Amino acid sequence: MNNKQDMVNLLKEIYDSEGDYFFGIPHFSQFINKLKKYDIGEMLACQTKYPLDYVIGFILSTPSLWTKMSDTEWLKAMSQLNPRPKPFGIEIFDAGYLYRYTLSM
Q1: Cα separation of 5 and 91, whole Å?
Q2: Could you give the CA distance from residue 104 to residue 91 in angstroms, rounded to a whole number?
Q3: C-alpha distance from residue 4 to each of 70, 96, 105 (Å)
């Protein structure tokens, strides 16, 4: 496993460069090979400082990082995160993201 600071620096680079040339799936796919070196739970935990819509975009744009995770791996990843203010509430933009990404598939 690589250094956590390297992961944090990569995540910052990805966040800072979004929208320069690409956004969404095309943007995140440029970094997918580098991202695969790190634990998805740790990546998500490090991204709690970024806006929620960005993190949702990251998750939905990088399914190759999480589609084969077991239940145990998901529990570990989610335990590293802080819960949302309304854990069982749905926000308007949550539905908008799901709609946008299902149309692009």
Answers
A1: 32
A2: 21
A3: 23, 32, 32
Q: Is 1 exposed, middle or buried (0-12, 13-18, 19+ CB in 10 A)?
A: exposed
DSSP summary character for residue 67: T
User: Quick check: 4 and 35 in contact, CB under 8 A?
Assistant: no
What's the sign of the alpha-carbon dihedral 104, 34, 67, 93?
A: negative
Identity at 25, one-letter amino acid code:
I
pLDDT band at 82 (very low <50, low <70, confident <90, very high): low
Structure confidence by residue, pLDDT tens digits, 85-103: 555 555 555 566 666 666 6
DSSP letters spanning 66-85: TTT--HHHHHHHHHTSPPPS
What is the torsion angle, in degrees rounded to the nearest 10, for the CA atoms of residue 49, residue 56, residue 28 and residue 78?
A: 70
